[in-house]
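protein under study:
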Amino acid sequence: MWIAFGGRADQPWLRLLHPGFRHCFAALREADGSWIVLDPLSGRLVVTRLDLPPGFDLPRAWRRAGFAVLGPFAPGPARPRLLPPLAPFTCVALCRALLGAGAPFALTPRGLFRRLRRRIAGLGKKS
């Protein structure tokens, strides 16, 4: 799984977030080489299967398009919960759910990016 972070603000309230980190979305690579993109947009979740040529490097294409991209990550097991989540369903919540029980705590795309980057560098602890 790869997570991409972008800076476009299609909703006025998104301008409050750090430029370049106003949205995040994920892509899962299937065994057959196709990609499943999960993109939580305002008011809906878009799930798209991309049939790209074998060997197509989607994370590289996203980087060339100006996104910050982190990965690969293995989707993790579900986090056990005693109560339903109290936070709203956001792009960060979706990416954290895909990462599973070991996902770092974050409320904003920039916060998630920083914690995941720190984890990749081996400097962060699980949170």
Observations:
- The two ends are 19 Å apart (CA to CA).
